Amino acid sequence: GSDNLSNDAPSVSSSVVLTQDDLKKIAAFKAVEFVQSGMVVGLGTGSTAKHAVDRIAHLLRQGKLKNIIGIPTSKKTHQQALSLGIPLSDLDSHPTIDLSIDGADEVDPDFNLVKGRGGSLLREKMIESASKKFIVIVDETKLVKHVGANGAMPVEVVPFCWKFTQESLQKLFDYAGCEAKLRSTSVGGGEKGEAFVTDNGNYIVDLFFKRDIGDLKAAGDAILRLAGVVEHGMFIDMATTVVVAGEHGVRLMPD
Ligand code: 5RP
Hints:
alpha/beta, four-stranded antiparallel beta sheet, binds ribulose-5-phosphate, Ribose5P_isomerase_type_A, isomerase, Ribose-5P_isomerase, Ribose5P_isomerase_typA_subgr, EC 5.3.1.6
């Protein structure tokens, strides 16, 4: 249970039943082992990345890490890191980041990712693209054969005439049986509730595919060519390391 894992480096023991949150924490703690004093560190967003931010703050308090500068990937992470006393900055002041640590919604065998089901894809992509190393932390439920086949592929769009952009996206992926839905704040989603608004004041259109979308890079580039689109949640050729925690232990890919 989580109590065993609170502030010390957790370990996977066969006698304890680990929750999914324990696994997230194990992956996060493992990734933080790569953080060294003096680094500029991209701080991810979500329930997995949250554990990494906690851990960095803990090591700073203990004096085991010094002179870290955190670059938060969302307002939420900014708030968390601020409350924990992690010194913060931004990409304008630190255009090169040593290491970013963040979760993902899906990871394929080539380390292509789907991100943004938490809604922070734009800032995450800006910061993680500017990182020399990008460590992705997941529990094993996030591993997939093909990204985009298992749930929403988020696209951040400008609010102006979002229906036009939503329809353009759906038409673009007609060949893959795409359904494009505006993300709402209401439970269960749909277009009836209020639109979910990103940290950048934009909306999210979630794409659901019935069939394979084919070449991911080509699909991503085609999305970006649509006027009205700001960014998409496919993170291709960005992750340098994936830390996966499962019932049988934690492993690094590539090992
Ligand atoms: C937010 C993200 C998150 O990293 C992703 O949604 C994973 O979140 P969690 O760790 O809570 O499962 O991309 O935009």
